[in-house]
Amino acid sequence: MIRNRFFARGAAATIFLSLGVFAWTQTQEPKLTINKVKDNLYEIEGDGGNVGVLVTTEGVILIDDKFDQDHNAIVAQVKSVTPQPIKYVLTTHHHQDHSGGNAKFLPTADVISTSMARANIVANKQGTDVPTAPARLAFTQEMSVFLGGQEVRARHFGRGHTNGDAIVYFPALKTLHTGDLMAGASPLVDYPGGGSIVEWTKTLDEALKLDFDTVIPGHGKVTDKAGLKTYRDNVAKLRDRVSGLIREGKSQEEVGKVLTAEYKWQPDSLNMKWSLPGFMTELK
């Protein structure tokens, strides 16, 4: 079906995202690559969420820091493009594939997140054996970091992937880092972490009002504003599909079978563990 093509194409990316959230038990040295996005702006891919890297004359601002095990590799990749030290880390949400490196950066950098993401880390909402270190600085709706003549704005527009998602905006470069508000092809709604598929599209609608042309997603390749709009519309299509099934009186098991058949959700995925039960409650 045409409406499902977007999600079916990215089934592998969805599985990667779901498994990646719990992949901190890996022991092999991660292989990361750094790619230039725009002047002084880079992104680091591999093993966890995409890391944004803004280089200034006074230091470096990171967006997310992957898993704890990625710290040395991230530092090495940054050093490959600048001798400047890492001064700030803005984390988009509490999952360990985006904020698991906090503890190793905190001694030398200020780590910043939304207040909700910080609270989720303190409460260990992800239920990890080794809890993530919470941010030192937190905000509720918006904050800016100014360094070396550059401004980076972190905004909380509402719930979506979690209840504490931050979108990071580079106004001079017209670029967004969305965290997992755009990731893979099929949205993973962390209901235990306060996520919402109903609010997700509203949150992206606010982000789309910003002046930007380039998007660094939480997972996947760098894209553009049209790509983010397409992602937003496909989140809405998934929501409407599930809502229709629930209105027809389908059980959770029956809805799950449709998601497996049409959207290639795997029976043991986090989508099934987190998103499906939440759908049955939020969309009833």
Based on secondary structure, the structural category is alpha/beta
Strand proportion, as a percent range, falls in: 15-25%
Let me know the CATH homologous superfamily. Ribonuclease Z/Hydroxyacylglutathione hydrolase-like
Gyration radius over CA: 18 Å
Query: Which architecture name does CATH use?
Result: 4-Layer Sandwich
Q: Helicity range of the residues?
A: 25-40%
Q: Are there runs of 5+ residues with pLDDT below 50, and where?
A: 1-26
Mind summarizing the main beta sheet?
A: 7 strands, mixed
Under the CATH scheme, which class? Alpha Beta
Largest beta sheet: strand ordering: 1-2-3-4-5-6-7
What is the total tally of β strands?
13
Shape verdict: globular
CATH topology tier name: Metallo-beta-lactamase, Chain A
H and E string: HHEEEEHEHHEHEEEEEHEEHHH
How many structural domains does the protein architecture include? Answer: 1
Distance between the termini: 25 Å
- Number of helical runs? 10
Overall mean pLDDT stands at 91
What does this protein look like?
The chain is α/β, with parallel strands linked by helices and 284 residues long. It has a single domain (29-239), classed as Ribonuclease Z/Hydroxyacylglutathione hydrolase-like (Metallo-beta-lactamase, Chain A), CATH 3.60.15.10. The chain has ten helices and 13 strands. It has helices at 5-9, 11-20, 71-79, 96-99, 102-105, 115-122, 197-207, 225-247, 252-263, 270-282; strands at residues 33-38, 41-45, 51-56, 59-63, 86-90, 110-114, 137-139, 142-147, 150-155, 167-170, 175-177, 214-216, 223-224. Strands 1-2-3-4-5-6-7 form a seven-stranded mixed sheet. A six-stranded mixed sheet has the order 8-9-10-11-12-13. The longest helix is centred in the C-terminal third of the chain and has 23 residues, at 225-247. It is globular and about 60 Å long.
